[in-house]
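Researcher: Please predict.
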Amino acid sequence: MKKPNLSMMPIFPRLLLSFSLICLAAMPLQAAEPEFPHQVDTRLQNELMYHLEQLGLNKAVKQGRLAVALVDVTDLEQPRLAHVNGNKMMYAASLPKIAILFAAFHQITAGKLKKTQSLIRDMTDMIRVSSNQAATRVMNMVGPYKLNQLLQTSPYRFYDVNNNGGLWVGKPYGKSPAFQRDPLHAISHGATAWQVARFYYLIENESLISPQASREMKEMLSKPRIHHKFVAGLEKVHPDSAIFRKSGTWRTYHADSAIVERDGRRYIAVALANDQNGGEWLKEIIVAMDNIIFTTDAPLQVSMAD
């Protein structure tokens, strides 16, 4: 590109151009959003399918009553994905409160929501103890329709009509009726395992909204105070695991999601189930996924999951 000849310009435009060039040079380059895989790692996929078969869960997978995603993020630049029914949208109860968390931090960062101590307390309570009252208060501060608009907006698109949906919150947490069910499946509180895993990957990369926002959201996901599903499973066999987590339960619907860190390894685990025994399934599934991460080495190749 040819440099402008400043000596041939009048003084005011010359000063204005010089100032603009200095500001442009001082601006940091914005990093591109980390690439979350669509393709599965063959070895990890085979291990996941084998362990689900060993747990007797193949029928639930085939019937669409179980969706699972596992991502090895020990090397953040080379995430390794495995999933079954990863793009199937299911009712996920309280798990989509992570979508409210995202929307609140988005609005805080945009200067449209003030981060008060009461808001921080509500965001933390809706995650750690899954407070319905706190979740509804935060959702109303963001704006219910604004929340779902943000979930569909680039670059995040946690709900994508071209990828069978994703995270959605179309009903207050409580007895109030739904105000906006998702456009593809008419679900009030929904998720896909793939989009939930992607949410956690962006947090772990510190690229969800901003590095500071990512760190604060991850802190709120830490220290879970409901000890069931993933947490119960890991506490029994690996109590030294650091778990950053959000779960959900309603009737036969059981959901859990987490970043797990231990002994230099880290992974993302997501499971959505529709079965009266789903909570017990998830306790067993997380132990199996943990074993996969700690016994499976580097990838062989990638291929597309069904």
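Model: The first helix runs from residue 11 to 26.
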